[in-house]
Design goal:
Distance between the termini: 14 Å
Shape: elongated
Structural class: alpha+beta
Oligomer: single chain
Order of helices and strands: EHEHHHEE
CATH superfamily: GTP cyclohydrolase I, C-terminal domain/NADPH-dependent 7-cyano-7-deazaguanine reductase, N-terminal domain
Largest sheet: 4 strands, antiparallel
Number of helices: 4
Strand order of the largest sheet: 1-2-3-4
CATH topology: GTP Cyclohydrolase I, domain 2
Number of strands: 4
Low-confidence stretches: none
Helix content: 25-40%
Number of domains: 1
């Protein structure tokens, strides 16, 4: 078993329950961690034998571009696509963070974390 991590994927998007969030948008950070058997690709040195992190990044960016009211919904969409499109992934964890959320206080970020396994 091996792990691939994509840390601090920066995205600008329009998620949130407030009307102004759909207009002005906000900065987001996404961290994605996937588990899978990387032993074969470690021997063959072939991209087709591993979990392609370029594909993972593409999924994150595409799903972050679809507006949702809740970060939980975005996280679930990311995980569902990862598990559907990358059969080698056995377990995935995603953290979606809204930077400087509009919650009436000095909060650096709010994060929703979700995990899915086969």
């Amino acid at each position: 078993m091996g792990v691939i991590k994509l840390k601090n994927i920066k995205v600008f998007s329009y998620h949130g329950c407030l009307d102004e969030e759909s207009k002005i948008g906000s900065e987001y950070r996404v961290d994605l961690k996937v588990h899978g058997d990387l032993s074969h690709s470690a021997k063959t040195d072939k991209l087709g034998d591993t979990i392609d992190y370029v594909h993972l990044n593409k999924i994150v960016k595409e799903e972050m571009a679809i507006r949702s009211k809740l970060l939980e919904t975005v996280a679930e969409r990311i995980l569902s696509r990862v598990m559907h499109e990358l059969i080698m992934v056995q377990k995935a964890k995603v953290e979606v963070s809204k930077i400087n959320p509009p919650i009436g206080g000095n909060v650096a970020m709010v994060t929703v974390s979700r995990t899915k396994s086969r």
